[in-house]
Amino acid sequence: MQHVNSFRALLRDTVNLSQTKLDLLDSRVEVIYQALRKDPELGPLVLGKRPQGSWAQRTIINPVGDKEFDADFMLDLAEVPEWADSPETYIDKVYAALHRNGTYNDMPHTRKCRCVQLRYANSMHVDIVPHLFLADGREVIVNRDDNCWEETNPDGFTAWMREKDGITDGNLRKVIRLMKFLRDHKNSFTGTRSIILTTLLGERVSQATALARPGCYGNVPTALLTIVNDLDTWLQARPYKPSIADPSGSGATFDHRWDQTTYGYFRARIHAHAQEIREAYDEQDHDRSVRLWRNLFGDSFPSLPGTSSSSLAPKFAAASLLTTATRTGRAG
User: Fold this and answer.
1) Backbone phi, then psi, for 50, in 5-degree steps?
2) Is-contact 229 319, C-beta < 8 A?
3) Where are the beta strands (DSSP E) in the chain?
4) φ, ψ dihedrals at 200, nearest 5°
5) Is 75 in contact with 128 (CB distance < 8 Å)?
6) Which residues of 36-47 are buried (b: 16+ CB within 10 A; e: fewer)?
7) What are 52-55's contacts with CB under 8 Å, separation 24+?
8) 160-204 pLDDT, tens digit each
9) Cβ contact 224:247 at 8 Å
10) DSSP conformation class of 11
């Protein structure tokens, strides 16, 4: 059974980051940004800021248990020609600016590969990502580990996400949040970064699929069934780690974000979860279906009356899902 209203409640009450926390994140990032702008050394280079990652794409989720939540923002900086051969300097300068600040110098702050991380006790951490437009036309972030630039295109990624989410009538973002919650709640495929999970799920969405299987993205549980089963089909055809291109068109790949062992585990877990989702969706007994969904998402999955399905169209699409997905997988 689909339990549409139960999924709506699960997202609202358990999975989604609350508006209170989003407001707290926004206010803290603004304070950090203003502190960096006022720094005597870094301030003259600061041009602006923008959300990045799951915060920007609206796929950020509530942490499981007492874990802290995290978010990234890009700090737009002016290029300094003297640092052309040392991109890591930008991260060092951001770190030093926090270290000089009376508010942040006693808070844990650490230089990472692509960011400076600032931690708030028992609540959240913020990753500050230096971001530049170079004189040669490249849009880049810093890789401190290799002391090099990495090309990026955040606006392109946002446009890609908007297009894919639109095909699903807004359900793709919800599916991504659910799968991130499943990963964290069950400690499943934990080595798979959110950017890879988001890209792989989004790339399975297409207008051709929507036309071939009417209603296949018609509500959250049906979109979850469709997208995860299509991902499973794609993965099962690829026993070895495939190259995952940045869908923004930056020319970069995410291949360095995981290895064959991590990929193999992810592939096996998605295969298992796809079967579990299908079983819970197809189960016609209300109470047993709720138990099966709870096996995936935990006891926070509510049992609400009168929520078995929302329309006949998504149910019809699900009935033809396996045949269509199998044909697609063999062709691709």
Assistant:
1) -160, 145
2) no
3) 46-52, 69-77, 109-111, 116-120, 124-133, 139-143, 148-151
4) -65, -40
5) yes
6) bbebeebeebbe
7) 52/127, 52/129, 52/154, 53/194, 53/195, 54/180, 54/194, 54/198, 55/25
8) 999 999 999 999 999 999 999 999 988 999 999 999 999 999 999
9) no
10) I
